[in-house]
Write a structure and sequence with these properties.
- There is one protein chain.
- The protein has 589 residues and is α+β, with helices and mostly antiparallel strands.
- It folds into 3 domains: 99 residues, OB fold (Dihydrolipoamide Acetyltransferase, E2P) (Beta Barrel), CATH 2.40.50; 286 residues, BirA Bifunctional Protein, domain 2 (2-Layer Sandwich), CATH 3.30.930.10; 123 residues, 2-Layer Sandwich (Gyrase A, domain 2).
- The protein is built from 16 helices and 22 strands.
- An 8-stranded mixed sheet has the order 6-9-10-22-21-20-17-11, with helices on both faces. A 5-stranded mixed barrel has the order 1-2-3-5-4. The chain has a 5-stranded antiparallel sheet with strand order 12-13-16-14-15.
- It binds aspartic acid.
Length: 589
């Protein structure tokens, strides 16, 4: 390598040095008797000065050919800028007086300027991602990502974890989401799946005695992408033997303490708060509670048991609940139009509607106020209503009412920008999740997290007859209302594992076909074990205060799972299809 320095690293300390630089042309300027080029590499930009009195004829001629993004090799001398110091540039105290320039490659005019504060569509950026990644902002994020992963690796090493890779082409083993599948050429008609996570392999590694495993693991889930979700993503996957829940939580807290210190210079408080799933649902209407603002749910079931408003009284007396949140002081801003919008959100989250009222001039009015006048005093007192408050109600089964109100609550917090300290990171563990939930469509039980979590000792008795009452030793780490990690203590006893599989409707044959290998392994001395998997993309996004997961991934996919850069997914040639024995039958849609 001929290069002596990176452009962006030159400082006044290099004064007088002869340097050889490589980089891309940010821009060039012709001032008649002097010519300037800004040359960029991964470390930043430096100004080159081409003085006709210093350069030979050939270099002068070359200058007129040079355009944006041309790739150059430049020889020159670092000189101080003296009175022309540019305080906005890292290298602003110096410039490089050019002796010689070589054009290493030409460049077409890029579809957007290589600079921050771009105002172009995300799709254009994704199509030309290699240019997008040249921008300082993206360069910085990718390097922050590398630092994060490096810091994780150092920490894990320090705790004596062993990094082990697990395969990408695996057997399709249901883990909650849809698998991506890969047809086998050698075994036509058979398919591999891409791992939704290394879950079963890390459990097998515990059976193998590795005791403490980790991996910076790529995971694949065929789900609709969203702002905070991608089809392929990266987790820190870890598993430990002979541990209890507290061991996993404490290790994770230590890790996060180091990460926030190293990456952000922030001392986070440990241990993190803990809420059980039920507490979190009851208070925040979510198992991913945004706790940087109050507006918690208040239970009004007792008050409305005997009221004349049927929607409330039947929910309250029929085993359900009536709950409310109070939006403080926003009665005027909360127009009918907005309330209709909030109602849509409640409905999307399982509610039949969204009852509301305002408290103005000392009394309740609007919305459902006229139906519950007799409860006005009780409401005023229980909710500590003040003039200007707006109240939203949820009346339904416990989980449904809370969920819908929880979604409205988060929307209101965002819309009215109610969080004061945006730089604060709120960390909370959510523990004791129900092991199962009912699939709304089929009515049968499905695992709430995955099938491999250990039931709590005081609820395991309900496994066969009332599975909805079984809780798991399951934990999620939530930061600022986002799920950052999930994990559990696992089942290590084959009979119990089988029982759990049967609870979700699998029969012996299916269990054997899908999970026979795991149950077999458990017959050969499986240690008690547990683990967790923090999502690295999402963690980085939150740490950096960003809201688009694509911005922290070098080559992300669009929300409809396309790679705009390469054109994936794509069709296969007829030869390829024949080799894997697949006929494409296009559906009529
Ligand atoms: N495999 C789980 C997941 O990806 C995490 C875990 O339980 O360790 O969500």
């Amino acid at each position: 390598m001929k290069r002596t320095h990176y452009c962006g690293e030159l400082t006044i300390k290099n004064k007088g040095e002869n340097v050889l630089l490589n980089g891309w042309v940010q821009r060039s300027r012709d001032l008649g008797n002097l010519y300037f080029i800004q040359l960029r590499d991964r470390e930043g930009i430096v100004q080159l000065v081409i003085d006709p009195e210093r350069c030979n004829e050939q270099t002068m001629q070359l200058f007129s050919d040079i355009k944006r993004e041309y790739v150059l090799e430049v020889k020159g001398e670092v000189v101080p800028r003296n009175e022309n110091i540019n305080p906005d540039m890292k290298t602003g105290e110096i410039e490089v007086l050019v002796d010689d320039i070589k054009i290493l490659n030409k460049a077409k005019l890029p579809p957007f300027h290589i600079e921050d504060n771009l105002n172009v569509s995300e799709n254009l950026r994704l199509k030309y991602r290699y240019l997008d990644l040249r921008r300082p902002f993206m360069n910085k994020i990718m390097r922050t990502r590398y630092k994060l992963i490096d810091t994780i690796r150092n920490f894990m090493r320090g705790k004596e974890f062993i990094e082990i890779e697990t395969p990408f082409l695996i057997k399709s083993t249901p883990e909650g989401a849809r698998d991506f599948v890969v047809p086998s050429r050698m075994h036509q008609g058979k398919f591999y799946a891409l791992p939704q996570s290394p879950q079963l392999f890390k459990q097998l590694l515990m059976v193998s005695g590795f005791d403490k495993y980790f991996q910076i693991a790529r995971c694949f889930r065929d789900e609709d992408a969203r702002a905070d979700r991608q089809t392929d993503f990266t987790q820190l996957d870890l598993e430990m033997s002979f541990v209890e829940q507290d061991d996993v939580l404490t290790l994770t807290e230590q890790l996060f303490k180091v990460l926030f210190k190293e990456m952000k210079g922030i001392d986070i408080k440990t241990p993190f708060d803990r809420l059980t799933y039920d507490q979190s649902m009851d208070m925040y209407g979510s198992d991913k509670p945004e706790r940087r603002y109050g507006m918690t749910l208040t239970d009004l079931t007792e008050i409305f048991k005997d009221c004349g408003f049927k929607v409330f009284s039947s929910a309250a007396s029929g085993g359900g609940v009536v709950r409310a949140i109070v939006l403080k002081g926003k009665a005027e801003e909360c127009t009918r139009k907005k309330i209709t919008e909030y109602e849509e959100i409640a409905k999307k989250n399982g509610a039949k509607g969204l009852a509301w009222l305002r408290f103005t001039e000392g009394e309740i009015n609007g919305g459902i106020a006229k139906f519950i006048k007799d409860k006005e005093d009780a409401l005023k007192e229980t909710l500590s209503l003040e003039d200007g408050d707006v109240v939203f109600f949820g009346a339904d089964e416990r989980e449904k009412a809370s969920n819908a109100l929880g979604a409205v609550r988060v929307h209101l917090i965002r819309e009215f920008e109610l969080i004061e300290d945006k730089d604060f990171f709120d960390m909370v563990w959510i523990t004791d999740y129900p092991l199962f939930e009912k699939d709304e469509e089929t009515g049968s039980y499905i695992a709430k997290h995955h099938l491999f979590s250990m039931p709590t000792s005081d609820t395991i008795q309900y496994l066969e007859k009332e599975p909805e009452k079984v809780y798991g030793i399951l934990y999620d780490l939530v930061i600022n209302g986002s799920e950052i990690a999930s994990g559990s203590i696992r089942v290590h006893n084959p009979e119990l594992q089988k029982k759990i599989m049967k609870t979700i409707g699998m029969d012996d044959e299916e269990i054997d076909q899908k999970f026979g290998f795991l149950l077999d392994a458990f017959e050969y001395g499986a240690p008690p074990h547990g683990g967790i998997a923090p999502g690295i993309d999402r963690l980085l996004m939150i740490m950096e205060g960003m809201d688009n997961l694509k911005d922290v991934i070098a080559f992300p996919k669009t929300n409809n799972q396309m790679c705009l850069l390469t054109g994936a997914p794509d069709e296969l040639s007829s030869e390829q299809l024949e080799e894997i024995g697949i006929d494409i039958v296009k559906s009529e849609k």
